[in-house]
Amino acid sequence: MKEMKILLVDDEEEFVKTLSERIEMRNVKSDVALNGEEALKIMDEDLPDVMVLDLKMPGIDGLEVLRRTKKAYPGVQIIMLTGHGSEKDEKEARRLGVFEYLQKPVEFEKLMRTIVKAYKSKFESSMVAATFAEAGEFETAKKIMDEEKE
Amino acid sequence: MNKCAEKEVAFFGKITAGITHELKNVLAIIRESSGLMGDIMSISPEAIIKYQEKIQNSMVRIKDQIERGVGLTDRLNKFAHSTDETIAKIDLQETIEQLITLAQRFARLKHVVLKTVPLNQKGPPVTLVTRHIQLQMALFASLECCLNVMSAGGEINIGIRKTKEKNAVHVVCKGDLPVQSEFARNISESEKWPVLQEIAACLEGSANLDETEHGIVLCFPEEIGR
């Protein structure tokens, strides 16, 4: 498995930078974006494996970033981390394909476990599809990859 | 009970949701800052010296966030107490300042800055005997009317202008705005405008478009009928 890259997106600068420092201390590469526009720009240049995304941000909000990312880069796993507890938003995020929806303040260990789980799941579906493709089951492999995109 | 009373719960929910969201951010920063210090301390005793600056920064961050949290809970507490009495004597300037702080997050999401303007005259504070919670609803609705039509980078100034005849609250929008007539039309067509009209009527007051500046003028009686 290649080295994991994380993108942290949150307008609370002190929170996101401290979180990034803690992740980097564990030798995991993590970038920071302070708003949705910045996040989308970073993704065009350096695609992360996992994105930890806030919901309510000035400008393009978290749900819109989730929507655009899942359309352009379906392989990026997205974890919503928000202080906004609305069930409606959670339902919409899940419908749009969020990997997990967590509430702030989250335990760091729990967040890291979820990040690793998201990262592994990204490769699991690719590996399952590759196995089917090797066996000549191209239709099944395609179906798995299409499901992943959805 | 007047017809605006049933809207009070929704208003309460909106404001408390915004403030508790901010409080969650405060707690998240404290948690990560203390976690970072813990991470450093668990490396080795030498790491504490090596990463002294990180530890100091974390301590400053925790202190700042505690202050921020105290300020937020203070305001939330005052806001919650505004329902203690249905009709009460209130300081209008203090209410504006309180509301501006509570609404700050909503403006920030639109990249708009909220500012209070000090009273234009010296003298005793302007007091009203009114429904405190509904007065805050009216102020908030006027801000929402402006926020709905303003673009990013703008500023809203809100303050009392005292004249011989009346005390009026002026909500003035600044920034990249269309011409006065178009701006006024946008405000009056915004979905919050009828809401503001209704609340102002419940308070026996008025909400009008400002004819000289981009904004809204609110007027309330010194004492509401009981």
Structure description:
With 150 residues, chain A is α/β, with parallel strands linked by helices. Chain A has a single domain (5-122), classed as Response regulator (Rossmann fold, 3-Layer(aba) Sandwich). Chain A has helices spanning 13-24, 36-45, 62-72, 87-95, 108-134, 138-149, and strands spanning 5-9, 29-33, 50-53, 77-82, 100-103. A five-stranded parallel beta sheet of chain A has the order 2-1-3-4-5, with helices on both faces. In chain A, helix 2 packs parallel to helix 3 (62-72) and helix 5 runs antiparallel to helix 6 (138-149). Chain A is globular. In chain A, 37% of the residues are buried. Chain B has two domains: 5-81; 88-219, Heat Shock Protein 90. Chain B starts with a helix and ends in a 7-residue tail after the last strand. The longest helix of chain B is centred in the N-terminal third of the chain and has 39 residues, at 5-43. In chain B, the strands form two sheets. A five-stranded mixed beta sheet of chain B has the order 2-4-5-7-6. A two-stranded antiparallel sheet of chain B has the order 1-3. Chain B has helices at residues 5-43, 45-50, 52-81, 92-108, 132-149, 180-189, 192-202; strands at residues 88-91, 113-117, 127-130, 155-162, 167-174, 206-209, 215-219. With 226 residues, chain B is of the alpha+beta class. Chain B contains seven helices and seven strands. The chains are: A alpha/beta (150), B alpha+beta (226).
Shape of chain B: elongated
CATH topology of the largest domain in chain B: Heat Shock Protein 90
> For this structure, what is the CATH homologous superfamily of chain A?
Response regulator
Distance between the termini of chain B: 11 Å
CATH class of the largest domain in chain B: Alpha Beta
Largest sheet of chain B: 5 strands, mixed
What is the number of helical segments of chain A per DSSP (H or I, 4+ residues)?
A: 6
Number of helices, counting only DSSP H or I runs of 4 residues or more of chain B? 7
Number of strands of chain A: 5
As for the CATH topology of chain A, it is Rossmann fold
Alpha-carbon distance between the two ends of chain A: 23 Å
Low-confidence runs of at least 5 consecutive residues of chain B: none
Which percent bin holds the helix content of chain A?
A: 40-55%
Q: Biggest sheet of chain A, open or closed, and with what strands and sense?
A: 5 strands, parallel
Number of domains as seen in the coordinates of chain B: 2
* Whole-angstrom Rg of chain B: 21 Å
**Strand order, biggest sheet of chain A?**
2-1-3-4-5
Q: Residue-averaged pLDDT of chain B, rounded?
A: 92
- The sequence of SSEs of chain A as H and E is EHEHEHEHEHH
